[in-house]
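Q: Please design a sequence for this.
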């Protein structure tokens, strides 16, 4: 970051605005949102600014300007409309040790005004370091849509109740209380105009010592993190991450995704990867359940979809055995993302009418899969955890009668900066994986299309007609 966002305390401070025309008025309107005292340095003021002075909200200094005019100000805006004069005034302000913003001259600025979404006391500031003001406005529009117009009043009301909550709601239930307040009935009521009802819902919950139904109750969410890219998470997954008290994640989860979590959420790396578990599954089961039983919101973040080769069954069972509420938040599985990355559908009408998600790495001691059935004609086979078993897979599929010329496409690290695509025939799978240094994580697709039927139809037009009729 070349700039750093901070919220400046403005109550009772002075903001000096050099200029008396429209540019100065724009800055004045912005500063009127604060409780700062405005000071205009200008020969003359346009009517809007003169009215501010008349109302006592601002002061006006006409005549010569020296360093003293800026002394002690929280901020200075230089907006005379004359570039030469602006540069000279910026020099004076800086000599007085004041943070300066000069209209339309980024090179002379110490600070830049962000795009603001104002739900005072909730304020969102958006900046792009001047690189993309249009983007900042787009983000602002999205935020404006997301945050209902009355939200500021609700936040202020919640702020007034903080002390009562601290007194009446035990510490362990406080986060749950505020989560309820900001995402359930109170906020909804307030947003729809029922301000009194919202306030009484809050007061009742405070008197009862916590939010209704959620007092200290833990939850485990098995959340699908998708294949890597953070914009492949679902909105629900992001919401769970932002509400989590603790997040257990493993090796395939991209750090980008973790950035979506609350800053003070605890993050625990459980380091599982194919064939090598830093933490045995039973330990993971035990710690997530123990955390939830303390009333914490637990996210068990898993790559792709938790329900596909994700050991979700063990975690669901462990939670249910202890009576802990557990849910699955689905994610984009690696095969879907890999198909998308290839720009190709996983099913192709008339050719492949089924997709099989299979693993190349079964539990030790399990019977070998029936490869002939898994990859029968008409199948797109998506193999997870197959890289290390490429030789065995190739051999087994060929032995099961899948043609050696079948198309194979391998997509590694899909949706990350390391994404890589490799294509070959089935009877070259092992040599290609070895020769090209194909690395985990990767999805290996094997396409085994149905035999074509056009030739048969062409030879029997009468029969086709008869069927159609
Ligand atoms: N639950 C996950 C799968 C976990 S098993 C899902 O639904 O995607 C781990 C295997 O998933 C890896 O060995 C690899 O085959 C596949 N995989 C996970 N992330 C991947 C990625 N970004 N690119 C390609 N394959 C990936």
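A: Design:
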């Amino acid at each position: 970051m070349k700039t750093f966002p901070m919220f400046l305390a403005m109550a009772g401070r002075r903001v000096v605005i050099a200029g008396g025309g429209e540019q100065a008025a724009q800055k004045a309107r912005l500063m009127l949102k604060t409780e700062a005292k405005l000071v205009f340095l200008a020969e003359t003021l346009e009517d809007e600014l003169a009215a501010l002075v008349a109302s006592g909200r601002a002061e006006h200094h006409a005549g010569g300007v020296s360093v003293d005019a800026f002394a002690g100000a929280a901020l200075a805006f230089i907006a005379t409309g004359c570039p030469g004069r602006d540069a000279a005034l910026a020099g004076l302000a800086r000599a007085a040790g004041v943070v300066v913003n000069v209209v339309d001259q980024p090179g002379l600025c110490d600070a830049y005004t962000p795009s603001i979404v104002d739900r005072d006391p909730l304020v969102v500031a958006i900046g792009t370091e001047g690189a993309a003001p249009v983007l900042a406005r787009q983000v602002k529009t999205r935020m404006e849509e997301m945050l209902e117009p009355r939200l500021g009043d609700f936040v202020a009301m919640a702020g007034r109740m903080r002390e009562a909550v601290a007194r009446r709601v035990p510490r362990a239930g406080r986060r749950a209380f505020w989560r309820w307040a900001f995402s359930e009935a109170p906020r909804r009521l307030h947003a729809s105009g029922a301000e009194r009802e919202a306030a009484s819902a809050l007061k009742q919950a405070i008197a009862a010592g916590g939010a209704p139904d959620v007092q200290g109750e833990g939850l485990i969410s098995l959340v699908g993190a998708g294949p890597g890219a953070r914009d492949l998470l679902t909105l629900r997954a992001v919401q769970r991450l932002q509400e989590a008290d603790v997040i257990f994640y493993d090796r395939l989860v991209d750090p980008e995704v973790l950035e979506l979590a609350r800053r003070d959420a605890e993050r625990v790396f459980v380091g599982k990867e194919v064939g090598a578990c830093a933490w045995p599954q039973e330990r993971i089961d035990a710690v997530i359940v123990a955390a939830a039983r303390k009333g914490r919101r637990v996210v068990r973040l898993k790559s792709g979809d938790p329900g596909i080769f994700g050991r979700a069954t063990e975690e669901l069972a462990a939670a249910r055995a202890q009576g802990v509420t557990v849910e699955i938040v689905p994610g984009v599985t690696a095969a879907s993302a890999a198909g998308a990355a290839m720009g190709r559908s996983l099913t192709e009408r008339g050719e492949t009418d089924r997709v099989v998600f299979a693993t190349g790495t079964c539990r030790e001691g399990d019977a070998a899969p029936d490869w002939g059935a898994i990859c029968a004609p008409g199948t797109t086979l998506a193999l997870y955890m197959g890289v290390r078993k490429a030789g065995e897979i190739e051999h087994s599929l060929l032995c099961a009668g899948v043609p050696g010329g079948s198309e194979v496409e391998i997509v590694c690290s899909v949706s990350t900066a390391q994404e890589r695509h490799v294509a070959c025939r089935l009877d070259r799978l092992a040599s290609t994986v070895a020769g090209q240094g194909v690395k985990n994580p990767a999805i290996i697709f094997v396409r085994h299309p149905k035999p074509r039927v056009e030739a048969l139809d062409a030879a029997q037009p009468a029969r086709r007609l008869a069927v159609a009729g």
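Q: Thanks. Anything notable?
A: Residues 462-469 have pLDDT under 50 and may be disordered. Residues 378 and 449 are 4 Å apart (CA to CA).
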